[in-house]
Amino acid sequence: MPMDDAAYATALAQELLGQALDQLCVGVSDLQLRFSHATVSLWSTIGVSTGNDAVVEPDSLSGVALLLPLLNGEVTAADIDPSGELTISLGDATIWCGSDPDYESWSYDGREGQKVVCTPGGDLAIWGAAR
User: Fold this and answer.
1) Which among 77, 100, 110, 131 has most CB atoms closer than 10 A?
2) Euclidean distance between CA atoms 40 and 20, whole angstroms
3) Are 121 and 99 in contact (CB under 8 A)?
4) 122 pLDDT above the threshold of 50
5) pLDDT at 1
6) pTM over 0.70
7) Is residue 131 very low, low, confident or very high in pLDDT (cuts 50, 70, 90)?
8) What secondary structure, in 3-state letters, does the chain show?
């Protein structure tokens, strides 16, 4: 993936900075992190670091248990790297979701219609704000 795509996607995701994690919504093979003005959907294996690293399925009980204490926490960092990995930090905790070789692994939906989807293999599909 071109470096510009990752940089542009990261710039869009910077909207998360300072937003609170308001809701966790769990579906079948889907977990949504709902922030004050944006939503991140996770469909692939995620990592959660709260002192110890854990790799879990986003819709599993162990995954939700690791994320529950992060509710109401403010986003302190958001990054999308050239491999398609999304990283979100809330205080001392970090959530990350890498790319999947066969499936879409995550998406970011911003306040004004911006959208980033990590497609199979780590490429990014990016839509700017709706006008």
Assistant:
1) 110
2) 13
3) yes
4) yes
5) 46
6) yes
7) very low
8) CCHHHHHHHHHHHHHHCCCEEEEEEEECCEEEEEECCCEEEECCCEEEECCCEEEECCCCHHHHHHHHHHCCCEEEEEEECCCCCEEEEECCEEEEECCCCCCCCEEEECCCCCEEEECHHHCEEEECCCC
